[in-house]
Amino acid sequence: MKTSAILLTMLSLALAGCRDKVQEPNDPAAPKVAGESVLFVEKAPQLSYLSLETAAPSEREEINFCGRVAWDEDHTARVYSPVAGRVVGVKADLGRTVSSGDVLALLASPDYGQVQSDAKKAASDLALADRTLSRERELFAHGAAAQKDVEAAQADYDKAVSERQRAEAQLAALGNAGPNTGDGVYSLQCPVAGVVAEKNIVSGQQVRSDAQLAGAPQFFAPLFVVSDPGKLWLFLDVTDMDAPRLKPGQEIHVHSKAYPDHVFSGHLEKIGDALDPSTRTIKARATLANPDHLLKAEMYVTAEIVSDGAKGVAVSAKAMFLKNNQYYCFVESAPGRFERRAITLGIQNGSRITIITGVDAGQQVVTEGCLLLQNILENGANS
Question: What is the mean pLDDT of residues 148-155?
Fold first, then answer.
């Protein structure tokens, strides 16, 4: 009887404990979800897993690129021959400094000889037409010639003038200044001042006049390339994230492994309007000063562009995370309240990244525990 009483008492206590456990209210320290925010009570244990950082206004930043040096096409000429012929003399060697109008090579050209002959014949025909017209006018004045003879002589003279203009224009189009000697030797002249950077011509070589019309440099190399090596272009591949930080006129500093102690200066000139489909980058071009001619065309270099006055704030790169192709971060909008915000990123410089939109300067951004907050937000939304 005593044993039964003891068992009954123990069973009553167990049932009472279960009833108390079921009726226990929710844990007051559990976080709550309200829209895009996670709320914690004061001194909630989860807060110890979070680290915060104050978003600071972004300052001057250096954006690093890899680049390729090339000839400045505004100061470069690729010289072809406008006439066919045989090379009888090469006047400019590789590396020679030349001026505009200097003779680079001499070509014996039947085509050029024909143009010279046409120009001489046109001049001779004009002189004859001029004398004939003068004679007919004189005879007409003395009544020894009819009006129609004067008119015919005038028509012949006008034709001769037109023919001479055509022949002289054709001769001038070949770019060969100087008297018309009629020897059929064409002087290939330099159109710009600079240095002979490339030479693809030898004495005795047969030259075609249609090489420049083919538009296929892989098959038809220019006879000469003349450029000013003191002025170069620099081509950069820019990502779409870096592009908003760039604008024409920005200063650029260039470093080369060949000259580790030398810094070359230039300015950003143009930024492309489309992505390259193969590299998914935007082409940018800068002008580069090379007064000592140290840099060479087709060199690979590294470049830095200083970006100042950039909008946005700078925070640790650990503050952002990616979800469904959108970047987010958590901002403490009130004590214990953390709001998820969609952000637009700028450039990343080391462990720091620029947030262009979504966060204001002075706000507290979560740098440790972002995934914890995201997990709570998703579980709360799914519950």
Answer: 92
